Amino acid sequence: MSTTRRPGAEILPPEAWGPFVRLARFAGRPLEQFLHIEAASGLVLLMAAAVALAAANSPWAAEYAGFWRLPLGVQVGGLRFERSLEWVVNDGLMVIFFFVVGMEIRREIHHGELSELRRAALPVAAALGGMLVPAGIYLALAGAPATRAGWGVPMATDIAFAVGILTILGRRVPAALRVLLLALAVIDDLGAIVVIALFYSAGIAVSGLLIAAAGFLGIALMTRFGVRSRIAYVAPALVAWAGIYAAGVHPTIAGVIVGLMTPVRAWFGPSGFSERVKEEIRTIDEMDPEDTHHVAQALARVSEARREAMSPAEGLIALLHPWVAFGIMPIFALCNSGVAIEVGEIRGDTAHVVLAVAAGLVLGKPLGVFGSSWLVVRLGVAVLPAGLTLRHLIVLGIVAGVGFTMALFIAQLAFPGAELLSGAKLGVLIASGTAGLLSLLVGRLALHEQQLRAAASTADEAESSTEA
């Protein structure tokens, strides 16, 4: 039975009551707007870190630490697997974070900023310089051999915080600078992943690698057989994760590899989706409305076309990104940012770690990013994107010194001991806060002047063309 509707009338689901629906939409609108702000993820991370710091330096510090040591596990027959809540966060939930990172790397290589050598030269050089120089500064300041294991900590940039800072700078930041930062961060993450795999993994067990290979082979075969169900890939992915963990390699590497294996080409694409929907609409129009079986089949084909309008990688990134940005990363920050700050206790090796990490991020990142970028541009290997100047590269280098999530993660792997780990965490927090404030200050001073000059130049050109 068809119904008529007045133009502009509100459409409500069957049995829904208008006032309740409008109330729910009104209540959800601010949250929806907040989640679409680029800086929102960085703000949530900042709040989580502040809560963790406050808890670790409060009378409830013991309860805070004990909470993350709570045992969690499963038992099947005589087999029992039990780990702490902290392990679940760092080795379990963070696998999803690295899975998304792997897909983003694959996407950028396939059709993004890293798909062409000429376009990739600048962010690749900036990222390499931004990893090598901080690591070198750390090693120069680290002191004793026991502290040198943390050289990988200042190599990483936190993309959520960095993008949030650029967003706060507003119109001073051209779109090309945001794109360059994202490309740099992708390569930066790739470098951190390689470092974790090669230098922060235990002795390799061949049996574990064989199990992982079976999982990866299963994923590859399912892709070749055209299996499109996302759920179907969970089982081989879990096998790969278990194998990597059993091999002694950090299990997050499994997430990266699975992400890199995720297809980045759409089956239908937007045009194919449009054609399929038009075809199915014509089919449904010709059907008997009572023939629910065939109507359901047509709607299933429409649903398939909708799902395949985007590549599996794009669809999964869109699905998982909010959960990672507003769930997994804040939980990780809550778990790992709690550092008991006792100035009198920061001495010896711990003081060296704090200084080396902070200097690596605050000084090493700008020097490495700007120096390597300037060099490849000067040599003609790369060109600056339209609208960018050396001033923008300076701001890019400073904001790259905001190393939070990945830096804290590497610190967990580098320092098993609580004292040096606390020093590394403190160094990351001090450096990230300093780099963030410097980015805002330098961005407002340098880019504002550049923007005024560009605006004045545009106005002069327009006036000249009018007179002519």
How would you describe this structure to a colleague?
By secondary structure, the protein is mainly alpha-helical. The protein has helices at 18-35, 40-56, 61-68, 85-111, 117-142, 159-169, 175-199, 206-224, 234-247, 252-261, 269-286, 292-307, 312-336, 349-378, 390-399, 405-414, 418-467, and strands at 71-76, 79-84. It contains 17 helices and 2 strands. Strands 1-2 form a two-stranded antiparallel sheet. Strand 1 and strand 2 (79-84) form a beta hairpin. The longest helix has 50 residues, at 418-467. It is globular.
Largest sheet: 2 strands, antiparallel
Strand order, sheet with most strands = 1-2
CATH class designation of the domain at 49-201 and 316-459: Mainly Alpha
Number of helical segments?
A: 17
Overall form: globular
Percent range for helical residues? over 70%
Order of helices and strands: HHHEEHHHHHHHHHHHHHH
Number of strands: 2
Beta content: under 5%
Mean pLDDT: 82
Runs in which pLDDT lies below 50 for 5 or more consecutive residues are: none
| Class derived from helix and strand content | mainly alpha
Q: Could you say what the CATH topology of the domain at 49-201 and 316-459 is called?
A: Na+/H+ antiporter like fold
CATH architecture label of the domain at 49-201 and 316-459: Up-down Bundle
**Estimated radius of gyration:** 26 Å
Distance between the termini: 68 Å
Question: What is the CATH superfamily label of the domain at 49-201 and 316-459?
Answer: Na+/H+ antiporter like domain
Topology overview:
Blueprint: H1 18-35, H2 40-56, H3 61-68, E1 71-76, E2 79-84, H4 85-111, H5 117-142, H6 159-169, H7 175-199, H8 206-224, H9 234-247, H10 252-261, H11 269-286, H12 292-307, H13 312-336, H14 349-378, H15 390-399, H16 405-414, H17 418-467
Antiparallel strand pairs: 1-2
Helix pairs in contact: 2-6, 2-13, 4-7, 4-10, 4-13, 5-7, 5-14, 6-7, 6-17, 8-9, 8-10, 9-10, 11-12, 13-16, 14-15, 14-17, 15-17, 16-17
